[in-house]
Specification:
The chain is α/β, with parallel strands linked by helices. It has helices spanning about 15-25, 45-55, 70-85, 100, 110-125, 165-175, 185-200, 220-240, 245-265, 270-275, 280-285, 290-300, 320-330; strands spanning about 1-5, 30-35, 60, 65, 90-95, 130-135, 140-145, 155-160, 175-180, 210-220, 285-290, 310. The protein has a single domain (about 1-220, about 290-330), classed as TIM Barrel, CATH 3.20.20. It contains 13 helices and 12 strands.
């Protein structure tokens, strides 16, 4: 079991700050540093700087959405970042959701699973150095080929997903699956979907790398750490469309998920946060004093079939709290 870092989704003071965090992760022996791409700095530029500022730690986006860049461009970018990082790069992509794709990028959130599958297939063909002639339901390409040498060791192409069919798709077509906001039991259920997808693709499930992004906050003031994690959970369930709410509902928290979303939607964010009970908080992350956070983290590390846990951070955590958490949960 490797422990990774999923850098903060919140805005950081500078690209240099992201580089500093990646360097700190490398010093603490984290296996991989994942960078989210939301509405701040683009991941390509930041990952390039991070690659030039580190030597050994793995790097990748989690995630690039499959709507704002063409798969051919993603393949080119992945090949370039694999070169810049001396073979330490890995692709993380997924459909994201309507709030991001339609609200921020102005694209129709159309056929997300089909688009993800075709993107994976095209990106892998590009990275293999093949001439890409592809006739799909979403994409049609003719004659594309890299004008530079393809990577000697092509980077893996992972896919994110929350629902049964999305996870099955990862098992069938991708090199890995990125999970987020899962309880241990919910994660086990989706891992069954991953294995089914691998079987459909005539693949060994052991060859599909599984990574869980887990909200963590480990501070001497344990209650402050839990408050930050609670606020984070309420925001995602209540404020980020329906995907996180629906995923939580599938994991045995249907009534609570809808209550949180209703409170948030009515503007009562304080009530939405209060509805994230201690039980739910512990089922979704590792927060509290360093000792407690390490104990909660272990519950997820013990899930059979999970290869990596990526320590993620509440959106309200400041840089000092991020660094304290990184230090406390370092492998």
């Amino acid at each position: 079991m490797s422990v990774d870092i999923h850098l903060p989704v919140s805005a950081q003071p500078s690209v240099d700050t992201l580089v500093d965090l990646a360097q700190r992760a490398e010093e603490l022996d984290y296996g991989h540093v994942w960078l989210p791409e939301t509405w701040g700095r683009d991941a390509v530029t930041a990952l390039t700087a991070m690659a030039q500022g580190t030597d050994e730690v793995g790097l990748g986006p989690s995630i690039w959405n499959v709507y704002s860049r063409s798969p051919a461009l993603v393949g080119q970018t992945a090949a370039t970042l694999q070169e810049v990082s001396d073979g330490r790069f890995r692709v993380g992509l997924g459909p994201s959701g309507p709030a991001v794709v339609e609200g921020w990028h102005g694209s129709d959130f159309d056929r997300p699973l089909r688009r993800t599958r075709e993107s994976i297939e095209i990106i892998k063909a590009v990275l293999a150095g093949e001439q890409v002639n592809y006739d799909g339901d979403v994409f049609t390409l003719g004659g594309f080929r890299l004008r530079c040498d393809p990577p000697e060791d092509p980077p893996g192409v992972d896919a994110a997903g929350m629902g049964p069919k999305a996870v099955e798709l990862s098992g069938r077509f991708a090199d890995g699956w990125h999970a987020t906001m899962f309880t241990p039991d919910g994660l086990r259920e989706r891992l069954d979907d991953l294995r089914r997808g691998a079987d459909l693709g005539d693949r060994d499930p052991e060859d599909v790398r599984t990574t869980l992004s887990l909200t963590c906050c480990a501070l001497p003031d344990g209650e402050r750490a839990r408050d930050l994690a609670r606020q984070h959970a309420a925001f995602y369930v209540g404020g980020m469309g329906t995907y996180y709410r629906d995923s939580l509902a599938r994991q045995g928290y249907e009534e609570r998920a809808h209550d949180i979303a209703a409170a948030w939607g009515s503007g009562d964010k304080e009530r939405a946060t209060e509805l994230v009970s201690d039980e739910l908080l512990d089922d979704l992350g590792a927060a509290g004093t360093p000792e407690r956070a390490r104990e909660e983290l272990q519950k997820f590390r013990d899930v059979d079939g999970l290869d990596r846990v990526a320590v993620s951070f509440p959106r309200g955590a400041d840089l000092d709290q991020v660094r304290e958490t990184m230090d406390a949960l370092a492998p």
